[in-house]
């Protein structure tokens, strides 16, 4: 792998983050309807800037992974240092990293998957998520000692959080990929397939966002509402679309944003796009890092 491929992986990660941001209508989450930030406090333009600001960091993570060629503890610590710098840049570009336009969990998910893709070029999703797990299993001695909102929620409610997802080989990223394949095979549009993938994650994920906002009742409502859409046949059916609209209205009214689910969908979209990236690389061209 070369520097150009590091940049290509970074570009693929940025495009996946932007694709997740632009996906509409996402229940309770910022999307293309929120240009004035009236509902979510995070407008779409800020989301795009936040994602694009991460491109140098993702490229640096890919390069860092290439050097040892294995998921070592030293690599984990280097990725952590790069991630903290990228998070600061992201916050400067679009708002506070913890509560602003792009949840920091997305950086964690995408950084691990970018590094895994650099370590195992051409590997499939199963091997890449397993490699990401091997990186995440190492501790980062340079990580801040202060607890984050996500770690506080995890300790309070026993939710695995983003770190737990990584250490379990990203099961919800793989579930989202399966949902994408099923919806596409059933004739859904790409938007409908991605929404179904998001709802599949929401239906079972112990998302720390709703827990932080309003505790277990909020998370239970997110799960039940997402499952209701899927039980109605998904967003491609009139019944599913109606259930989605009702869930979206409720979550927005209550200020409940399942951001952890959105971050994992972005990871799935990144892995979903890697085969096309490999074809592009074999043709001798490299996709740009943003739109």
Automatic annotation (TrEMBL):
Keyword ATP-binding appears in the UniProt entry: yes
Protein keywords: ATP-binding, Glycosyltransferase, Nucleotide-binding, Transferase
Enzyme Commission identifier(s): 2.4.2.52
One Pfam family recorded for the sequence: CitG
Recorded superkingdom: Bacteria
Stretch list, region Disordered: 138-168
GO MF annotations in UniProt: glycosyltransferase activity; triphosphoribosyl-dephospho-CoA synthase activity
Keyword Nucleus applies: no
Recorded catalytic activity of this chain's protein: 3'-dephospho-CoA + ATP = 2'-(5''-triphospho-alpha-D-ribosyl)-3'-dephospho-CoA + adenine
UniProt xrefs under InterPro entries: CitG
Name of protein: triphosphoribosyl-dephospho-CoA synthase
């Amino acid at each position: 792998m070369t520097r150009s491929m590091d940049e290509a992986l970074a570009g693929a990660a940025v495009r996946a983050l932007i694709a997740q941001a632009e996906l509409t209508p996402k229940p309770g989450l910022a999307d293309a309807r929120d240009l004035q930030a009236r509902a979510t406090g995070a407008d779409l333009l800020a989301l795009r800037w936040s994602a694009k600001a991460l491109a140098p960091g993702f490229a640096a993570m890919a390069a860092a992974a290439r050097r040892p060629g294995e998921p070592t503890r030293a690599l984990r610590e280097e990725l952590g240092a790069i991630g903290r710098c990228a998070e600061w840049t992201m916050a400067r570009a679009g708002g506070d990293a913890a509560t602003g336009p792009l949840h920091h969990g997305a950086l964690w998910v995408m950084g691990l998957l970018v590094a895994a893709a650099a370590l195992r070029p051409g590997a499939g999703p199963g091997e890449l998520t397993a490699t990401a797990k091997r990186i995440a299993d190492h501790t980062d001695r340079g990580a801040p000692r202060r607890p984050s909102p996500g770690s506080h929620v995890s300790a309070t409610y026993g939710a695995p959080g983003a770190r737990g997802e990584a250490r379990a080989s990203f099961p919800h990223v793989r579930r989202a990929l399966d949902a994408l394949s099923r919806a596409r095979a059933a004739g859904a549009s790409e938007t409908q397939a991605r929404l179904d993938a998001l709802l599949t994650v929401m239906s079972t994920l112990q998302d720390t966002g709703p827990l932080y906002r309003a505790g277990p009742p909020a998370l239970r409502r997110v799960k039940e509402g997402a499952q209701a859409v899927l039980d109605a046949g998904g967003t491609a059916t009139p019944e599913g679309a109606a259930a989605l609209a009702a869930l979206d209205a409720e979550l927005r009214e209550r200020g409940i944003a399942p951001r952890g689910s959105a971050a994992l969908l972005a990871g799935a979209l990144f892995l979903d796009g890697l085969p096309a990236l490999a074809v592009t690389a074999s043709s001798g061209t490299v996709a740009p890092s943003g739109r």
